[in-house]
């Protein structure tokens, strides 16, 4: 264990680079990449906001953000779909149904949509490329990694092409339509300050992710160092020593503090003191600072950004909903169905250009178990409405009209 001696000779020009850097930047700490830092720091440090950093620090290293992204992507991809061509429901063997069931040879339909929705949650953008066959119809759909796609703006500021970069090569995909067919579909969430790219929920939740990761790193550091709290070094002159430390001694102590005792990895490390130095506990203990509640608060902020009720994630302290079923219904109504509707609307308009007919993809709400209670209440209300015709009742339930159904229930067929 290294010891502190303020009167030890300061190292010369061959001082280790890490110590020199710590002495020059005594307020910069790094307990974990992208984590917030409080100890001996004048301000918190937050992680970068690139797609790679969001995916690394949020999706890969934060359990709450990871679960939110997975929950939204998996549930949204599993929603049963209906397809209409024009004003009638499309047949089960419609080419679009087959295409969405098997978008490409490597990916099934559920995995394809799960990838698209996960990319929207992590980066706010999703890009889908269509490969055409000899007849000019899409034979395969491929999701492109958002961090590899760059929007090329035109003279008016709107996108004129997309550059897809992989393995040091760049492939340009035009935006211009050929007979109504666009090779790339760009899905994005709303961004108030950017015309080209979307703003992801994970970006909005990044502060909560940083705090949550920092709390985890800090607690881990305390456990690694016998859970001892932090404190301060106090210089007690005596035995003929000067009343104050010299500038060189102060700088050396700062450097050694930064190298050996600051950051989540060194949290609670005990001091070995000499040369008139005394240890003065000054920081709050982990129980006083209540890191567990800090973690739960940050976790609730992350869940709020994604629109996931904390009750579904097992986060304590949230009593917004009376029970799990109510929270689950709110999750489907307020988060999943609007997300699926936006995605399917964009897919419908994009594929309509390829097939030359008006296509409409929609979520089949009648087939969702999570909304069974809502559907049952709707059925009762519609059935108890004698002023609606049979086809009007079926339209309320999302069903196709029936021949002869334009009359009120109980009316004889010849009453017209």
TrEMBL record:
InterPro entries: Phage/GTA_portal (IPR006944), Portal_HK97 (IPR006427). This is HK97 family phage portal protein. The lineage of its organism: Bacteria, Pseudomonadati, Pseudomonadota, Alphaproteobacteria, Rhodothalassiales.
